């Protein structure tokens, strides 16, 4: 029996309280609770000084100011050391003229990567895969994305996702496929026959059918 | 751990920034406003400065210790 079969890894899921951590980063020791009150995009990458990860770090830095305007912090993670991270972010600054302003966790013990289910042995061996956890200001996991080693993430989608999640929380609405900021949103479907009848005649929303109605914010 | 350990991970300029911001005491929000840094960074830095004996927390406000005052 494999180790994983003997000790199945419990992955956090959407809606769960984000697992706590206390870690060393490129910007000093950090606890998850330090982020209370702001949203957090916690992402892992396989290794420092690797090609896809380097392009991702430049791209993450590019969206960091926009995320900060959304009260959202960025926090990277890999199973490399702080010294490796420092050397890598300095190398990125030299090669790409991009200063990495967000902290990067040195998860040498793999404690956080394991807690968050970031290691997918059949794809990434002992390294972390490309995971993204969006955690809200109450430290609840709102969304999870996984990419394999070979595929760099889409930063526009991460920003779009944060905006969509925050819109849902703020206005109690859903967002349709390909929604972007400013588009119409979806109102919750009726939960009873009576609600459905009234929804069908509700002039305050654009009713496509009783179960599908849009509105502007 | 490499060969040796610093008192904190804060750069000297960061220590000075925080100690100056705290000079007349303040809570996390007041300090954050003065140093203009993300809240996670402020909480982390205050924890480090407290651990290194530069500041102490009294009634949810941070004040400089003798070591903190001597460092300014």
From TrEMBL, chain A:
Q: Which residues bind substrate?
A: 130
PROSITE patterns named in the record? THIOREDOXIN_2
In terms of InterPro entries, this protein maps to: AhpC/TSA, Peroxiredoxin, Peroxiredoxin_AhpC-typ, Peroxiredoxin_C, Peroxiredoxin_TDXH, PRX_1cys, Thioredoxin-like_sf, Thioredoxin_domain
Region annotation (Disordered) ranges: 1-22, 179-203
The GO terms describing molecular function are: thioredoxin-dependent peroxiredoxin activity
SUPFAM superfamilies from the xrefs?
Thioredoxin-like
> What start-end ranges are recorded for coiled-coil regions in this protein?
none
* Taxonomic superkingdom: Bacteria
Q: Which reaction does it catalyse?
A: a hydroperoxide + [thioredoxin]-dithiol = an alcohol + [thioredoxin]-disulfide + H2O
Q: Which Gene3D superfamilies match?
A: Antioxidant, Horf6, Chain A, domain2, Glutaredoxin
Q: Where is the Thioredoxin domain?
A: 12-167
- One Pfam family from the UniProt entry? AhpC-TSA
- Record-listed E.C. numbers: 1.11.1.24
Write out the catalytic residues in the record. Answer: 53
Which UniProt keywords are given for this protein, alphabetically ordered? Antioxidant, Cytoplasm, Disulfide bond, Oxidoreductase, Peroxidase, Redox-active center
Location of the protein in the cell? Cytoplasm
Other observations noted = The active site is a conserved redox-active cysteine residue, the peroxidatic cysteine (C(P)), which makes the nucleophilic attack on the peroxide substrate. The peroxide oxidizes the C(P)-SH to cysteine sulfenic acid (C(P)-SOH), which then reacts with another cysteine residue, the resolving cysteine (C(R)), to form a disulfide bridge. The disulfide is subsequently reduced by an appropriate electron donor to complete the catalytic cycle. In this 1-Cys peroxiredoxin, no C(R) is present and C(P) instead forms a disulfide with a cysteine from another protein or with a small thiol molecule.
Subunit details: Homodecamer. Pentamer of dimers that assemble into a ring structure.
* UniProt function note: Thiol-specific peroxidase that catalyzes the reduction of hydrogen peroxide and organic hydroperoxides to water and alcohols, respectively. Plays a role in cell protection against oxidative stress by detoxifying peroxides.
* Membership in a protein family: Belongs to the peroxiredoxin family. Prx6 subfamily. Belongs to the peroxiredoxin family. AhpC/Prx1 subfamily.
Q: What is this protein called?
A: Peroxiredoxin
UniProtKB/TrEMBL annotation, chain B:
Q: Please give the coiled-coil regions recorded for this protein.
A: none
* Start and end residues of each ArnR1-like winged helix-turn-helix domain: 19-70
**Domain of life of the source:** Bacteria
User: Pfam family of this protein, just one?
Assistant: HTH_45
Q: What is this protein called?
A: Winged helix-turn-helix domain-containing protein
Q: Which organism is it from?
A: Piscibacillus salipiscarius
């Amino acid at each position: 029996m494999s180790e994983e079969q003997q000790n199945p890894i419990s992955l956090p899921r959407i809606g769960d309280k984000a697992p706590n951590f206390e870690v060393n980063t490129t910007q000093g020791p950090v606890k998850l609770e330090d982020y209370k009150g702001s949203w957090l995009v916690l992402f892992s990458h396989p290794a420092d000084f690797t090609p896809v990860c380097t392009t991702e770090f430049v791209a993450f830095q590019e969206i960091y100011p926009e995320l900060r305007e959304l009260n959202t912090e960025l926090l990277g993670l890999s199973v490399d050391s702080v010294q490796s991270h420092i050397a890598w972010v300095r190398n990125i600054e030299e090669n790409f003229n991009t200063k990495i302003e967000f902290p990067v966790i040195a998860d040498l013990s793999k404690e956080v990567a394991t807690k968050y289910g970031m290691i997918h042995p059949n794809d990434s061996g002992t390294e972390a895969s490309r995971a993204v956890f969006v955690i809200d200001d109450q430290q609840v996991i709102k969304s999870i994305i996984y990419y394999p080693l070979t595929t760099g993430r889409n930063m526009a989608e991460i920003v779009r996702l944060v905006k969509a999640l925050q819109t849902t929380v703020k206005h109690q609405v859903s967002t349709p496929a390909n929604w972007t900021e400013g588009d119409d949103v979806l109102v919750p479907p009726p939960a009873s026959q009576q609600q459905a009848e009234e929804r069908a005649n509700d002039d305050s929303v654009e009713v496509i059918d009783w179960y599908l109605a849009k509105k502007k914010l | 751990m490499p060969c040796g350990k610093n008192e904190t991970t804060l750069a000297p300029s960061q220590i000075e920034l925080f100690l100056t911001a705290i000079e007349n005491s303040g809570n996390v929000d007041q300090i954050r406003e003065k140093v203009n840094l993300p809240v996670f960074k402020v909480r982390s830095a205050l924890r480090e400065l407290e651990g290194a004996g530069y500041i102490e927390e009294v009634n949810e406000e941070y004040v400089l210790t003798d070591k903190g005052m001597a460092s300014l």
